[in-house]
Specification:
With 331 residues, the chain is an alpha+beta fold. It folds into two domains: 7-140, no CATH class; 149-329, no CATH class. It is 31% helix and 25% strand. It is built from ten helices and 14 strands. It has helices at 7-13, 101-116, 124-140, 149-160, 165-171, 232-243, 247-261, 265-268, 275-280, 324-329; strands spanning 26-30, 38-42, 47-52, 64-65, 69-81, 87-96, 182-184, 187-194, 200-204, 215-222, 225-231, 272-273, 282-286, 305-309. The chain has a five-stranded mixed β-barrel. A hairpin with a 5-residue loop joins strand 5 and strand 6 (87-96). Helix 6 (232-243) runs antiparallel to helix 7. The radius of gyration is 22 Å and the shape is elongated. The protein starts with 6 loop residues before the first helix and ends with a helix. The relative contact order is 0.14.
């Protein structure tokens, strides 16, 4: 999603060239920086991404079909670009088969960076792996929700308001099972978000006891619902724009959101919180300052969680800390 390129806007603006029949082909726009790959509008009004097999002709696999996704390998395609002659070739084609416009937009925005992050001349293995990632992404949309929309909003907000979104996005967890939200070198950062006016959050004891030789921080965020506030989608779009040509990180952002929200993605994307209020009420704390329970002597007692009130705990002067992660979070 390089520069100011907006894949969804590009898709919406695609139209069939006058006089060319809809004969099962595609009208398409070449993706920025990619000679033979396209974002496309299928003849049946389905959005699609087309990956040329010019450098990967050996991709031969059975098609994959999910409820709202189809992936075809080594498919013959006729492409009508916005200008110029019709193009014919063999492509890996991934398309969204839903009539839900929200899901169509999700598909275009989430899948485009996966395609853009492929090598310029991808191998068969590269193309196959990218298609597997797309399939896993859509399978996740049908899975139970793993985390709250409010929580993912808070994590995105930390990236959004950071001085170095590339560094912070690189530090963001790759899997929901990771103990901390952000990890870089010897630093860990856990983000806690609440709509309460009381700065109280739920912690696991493990989050407050990082590995030896590391320093853990807590970002505490108070949020307030607002009709005209920032949505999860607003935050992702803004972050991806700031990531520039780091399409691999844009793909990670969409993957983290999808894996967290699961089947609750549609409702979660629309929650909105006041940006000014969130900025004014973002505080950082050393994890060692957070009130906690005592670790049990009995090792068979584990996975301990509790709520802790940080209202009266002195907040950290974040600008006095110069580690690579906490410095990148400075706004």
């Amino acid at each position: 999603m390089t520069g100011s390129f907006d894949p969804w806007q590009a898709y919406v603006e695609l139209s069939w060239p006058e006089g060319r029949p809809r004969d099962g082909g595609f009208v398409a726009l070449q993706l920025p920086g990619r000679m033979h790959d396209y974002i496309a509008h299928a003849s049946d009004d389905e959005p699609a991404l087309l990956v040329s097999l010019e450098t990967a002709p050996s991709v031969v696999r059975a098609p994959v079909r999910l409820e709202y996704l189809e992936v075809s390998f080594n498919a013959p395609c006729r492409i009508a670009p916005s200008t110029g002659p019709v193009i014919e070739g063999r492509f890996a084609v991934v398309r969204c088969t839903s009539t839900n416009w929200r899901l169509k937009e999700y598909f275009v925005r989430a899948v485009t960076p996966l395609i853009e992050s492929l090598p310029v001349e991808p191998s068969a293995a590269d193309v196959s792996a990218a298609m597997n990632d797309v399939v896993e992404l859509f399978k996740a949309l049908e899975s139970p929700q793993r985390g709250s929309a409010k929580g993912i909003w808070g994590e995105l907000f930390v990236i959004y308001q950071s001085a170095d979104p590339i560094a912070v996005a690189k530090a963001w967890r790759c899997e929901g099972s990771e103990k901390f939200d952000f990890s870089l070198a010897e630093e860990r950062l856990e983000v806690k978000t609440t709509e309460s006016s009381r700065r109280a959050h739920r912690f696991s004891l493990d989050q407050l006891e990082p590995p030896a030789g590391t320093t853990a921080y807590v970002a505490s965020l108070l949020v307030r619902s607002a009709v005209g506030g920032l949505s999860v989608l607003n935050l992702v779009k803004a972050i991806c724009a700031r990531l520039g040509d780091r399409t691999d990180l844009a793909a990670r952002v969409w993957s983290n959101i999808t894996m967290t929200l699961g089947e609750g993605w549609e409702e979660a994307l629309e929650i909105r919180f006041d940006e000014h209020h969130a900025s004014e009420h973002l505080r950082f704390f050393l994890a060692e300052m957070v009130p906690r329970v005592t670790k049990p002597a009995n090792e068979r007692v584990f996975d301990i969680t509790f709520r802790s009130d940080l209202s009266d705990i002195p907040a950290l002067d974040i600008h006095s800390h110069s580690g690579p992660l906490i410095s990148s979070v400075h706004s």
